[in-house]
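Dig into what follows:
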Amino acid sequence: MRAWRTAAYVAASVALVELVVLIALGGGMLADAISERVQLAAREKVSAEVAPARPEAEPVARKPAPPPAAARPRSRTVVVVLNGNGRTGAAASAASRVQSRGYRIGAVGNAPRTDFAKSLVMYRPGFAGEGHRLGEDLGVKMVGPLDGVRIGTMGKAQLVLVVGS
């Protein structure tokens, strides 16, 4: 055999021994980490089973805060009415009802989606009172801040009514 072959075999054997040692060390460290997590989980489970049950405090019934009062009269409140159910003329019909209550109509159009199950009223920041008043006037229970409507697309309107099914 030539000297270079012998040197290659020796180098490969040394590398193989080093690889086996590294795998053994790494496996041992991994086993320690897994063992610690298993033991911790077992201790938590046992302590939860052994700990005496504490009686839970009864929840305190809180009345929801009343909505803020509307600062603007209906005649100075502008509403955008959007059709969210896909039925032809639903937004125009709702706009007539809104207008008959004394509100001004800013625009009538279609919502980006037509799968709204219920009607909802959304309001600009600072107009929560007006939004809740419109909801009460129309019997709409879902009233909240603007969501999915950009303020810039509303023009001068303070409220948005999305007509659902």
Summary: The CA atoms of residues 135 and 141 lie 6 Å apart.
